[in-house]
Amino acid sequence: MSVIIDEAKCGKIENCPGEGLCIKLCEKGALEEGDGQVIIIDEKCDDCEICIQNCPNQAISKK
């Protein structure tokens, strides 16, 4: 299982109070920046939920 990002809540990295905190915290490299947005690399996600727990906008959840 992987995560999904609610783009309406996320507001892109430029509007994130954590300045892309989810990307910085992901030890597996499953979250990357692409064109100012957070991109999920499903095959790298190990379901640790660190991104879910630390998203300041509560924009990340499980599929």
Automatic annotation (TrEMBL):
Query: Superkingdom of this entry's organism?
Result: Archaea
MF term (GO), any: oxidoreductase activity
Which residues are in the 4Fe-4S ferredoxin-type domain? 36-63
Q: Where is the signal peptide?
A: none
What's the name of the protein? 4Fe-4S ferredoxin iron-sulfur binding domain-containing protein
**Which organism is this protein's natural source?**
Methanobacterium congolense
